[in-house]
Amino acid sequence: MEAELTALAASGATTFVGLMATEAWTQVRGRVARFLARGEDTEAVDAELEESRAELTAARADSDEETAADIEAEWRTRLRRALRANPEAADQLRDLLEELAPHQPTGATVSINHNTINGGTYNSPVIMAQSIHGGSAPLTPRQEPGAR
What we know:
The protein is mainly α. The chain has 5 helices and no strands. 57% of the residues lie in helices and 0% in strands. The longest helix has 21 residues, at 65-85.
């Protein structure tokens, strides 16, 4: 049972922190705060969640994955303790995670740390992307006259 509660706490923390970084957070924050408060001061928990979100946003903007992982670990520990103290909350957490599933981001995310363009003359905007879909022919760079 302990391993199951630990896995559930990890899933909850991953979901909560993942949602903090999305537009959906404003829609789900209240439900998460009510669950975590467990009848206590919901406003205090809500403030803690918002503080975590601000830290997470700053960490991701700075490409600081260690701090982002620490934030998730804090919520995982908190959830694990809550589930140990009240094992009946496990069913409520499962229900909440199921309810939040449609709000979770899908697909892979890509982080761009730094882009640099050196040399050459560009007479139009330069677009840098991992991949660009659409069109019928691949884009090829235009070469200056006399270039090889």
